[in-house]
């Protein structure tokens, strides 16, 4: 869970600035619902500043709140917690993106033949190599056939691992709901 929480915080930081980080991190660490007062005193911040951060976090779906009416005074108290479903959605989305990239990379590797310059290690497709008469366009060294089996194997293994993760998480998701 640590990785996904870090990712969640990074994303919040990149969208909302580093102001929100301490509030979000505290909520993740405490693992219980907290009021703005509690957050403010834990972080030694003004309640108004905490509220501003909570509102911008909730607008972007990073935190959710539940409100109850305070019986005597009649006002509402909000209890805040991190939006864990959103963490999982973000993670799954991220994984699907990576999976897509790896798959199209593997397809590219599988459907092309490559040549490499042994001097500067630049790699060229068959078309590029052919156009340059199988000499490196940068330094003129004769190009050699590049065996991409290792690359393909590496990509295949990565793809399998991510597919497995996605499948397992999808299964867990259905069990939970
Ligand atoms: Zn070269």
Automatic annotation (TrEMBL):
Keyword flag Phosphoprotein: no
Xref: PROSITE patterns: HTH_TFE_IIE
Superkingdom, taxonomy of origin: Archaea
Pfam families listed in its UniProt record: TFIIE_alpha
GO molecular function: DNA binding
Quaternary structure note: Monomer. Interaction with RNA polymerase subunits RpoF and RpoE is necessary for Tfe stimulatory transcription activity. Able to interact with Tbp and RNA polymerase in the absence of DNA promoter. Interacts both with the preinitiation and elongation complexes.
Family indicated by similarity: Belongs to the TFE family.
Domain free text: The winged helix domain is involved in binding to DNA in the preinitiation complex.
Protein name per its UniProtKB record: Transcription factor E
């Amino acid at each position: 869970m640590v990785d996904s929480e870090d990712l969640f915080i990074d994303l919040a930081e990149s969208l909302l600035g580093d102001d929100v980080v301490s509030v979000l991190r505290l909520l993740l660490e405490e693992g219980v619902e907290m009021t703005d007062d509690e957050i403010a005193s834990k972080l030694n911040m003004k309640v108004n500043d905490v509220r501003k951060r909570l509102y911008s976090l909730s607008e972007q779906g990073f935190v959710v709140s539940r409100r109850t009416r305070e019986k005597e005074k009649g006002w509402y108290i909000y209890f805040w917690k991190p939006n864990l479903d959103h963490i999982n959605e973000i993670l799954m989305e991220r994984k699907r993106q990576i999976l897509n990239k790896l798959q199209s990379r593997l397809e590219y590797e599988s459907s092309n033949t490559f040549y490499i310059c042994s001097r500067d290690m630049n790699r060229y497709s068959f078309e590029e190599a052919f156009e340059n008469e199988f000499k490196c366009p940068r330094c003129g060294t004769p190009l050699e056939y590049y065996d991409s089996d290792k690359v393909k194997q590496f990509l295949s293994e990565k793809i399998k691992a991510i597919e497995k993760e996605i499948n397992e998480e999808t299964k867990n998701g259905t069990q939970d709901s």
